[in-house]
Amino acid sequence: MYSKAISWLTKKWKAVVAFVGLVSTAILFYLRAKGQKKVLEKANESHEKENQANEKALKDLAEGLQDIGDEEAENIEASLREHSRESKDLEKKKEDFVEKAAEDPDLAKNLAEKIGARFVENKD
After folding, report:
1. pLDDT in tens, 83-112
2. Please, what sign has the CA dihedral across residues 84, 90, 93, 95?
3. Domain layout of the chain by residue ranges
4. Could you tell me what percent of the chain has a pLDDT over 90?
C-alpha cells in the first residue's frame, strides 16, 4: 500500500503541488481577510468617535454663538435704555437752563465772564 501511494505521488506530483499551493493560498487569504476585517472595524470605530466629536463641537459652537448673540442683544438693550434715560435727563437740564436763563438779567455778563470775553453793556 505504501508503494502504491508513492507511485501515485510520482505520477501526480504536479496535482499534489498545485493542491498544496491552492490550500496554502486560501489559508493566507483567509488570515489576511480576517486581519483586514479587524482593521476596518477599528477604522469604523475611530470614524464614529470622530463624528461624535465633530457633532459635539458643532453643538457647542452653536450654543456659544447663541449665548454671545443673546448677551450682545441684552447689552444693546441696556445701552438703549441708558441712552434714552440720559437723553431725557439732558432735555430736562436744557429746559431748566432755558427757564433759568430767561429769568436771569445778568446772563450775557455771566456768559462773557465764563468764556473770558469782555462784556460791553448796552446803553439804551
Report:
1. 999 999 999 999 988 888 778 777 777 778
2. negative
3. 50-103
4. 54
Question: Which amino acid, 107?
Answer: L
Helices (H), the chain: 2-11, 13-103, 107-115
The C-alpha atoms of residue 2 and residue 98 are separated, in whole angstroms, by: 134
**Angle between helices 2-11 and 13-103 in degrees, nearest 10:** 60
In this structure, how many other beta carbons lie within 10 angstroms of the beta carbon of residue 104?
13
Residue 54 is placed in which grid cell?
465633530
Residue 78's identity, in one-letter code, is: A
- Which residues are CB-neighbours of 9 under 8 A, at least 6 positions away? 16
Backbone dihedral angles phi then psi of residue 120, each to the nearest 5 degrees: -115, 125
| Cα of 8 vs its chain's centroid, Å | 76
Grid cell for residue 19: 493542491
> What average pLDDT is seen over the chain?
89
Most distant pair of Cα atoms in the chain: their distance: 157
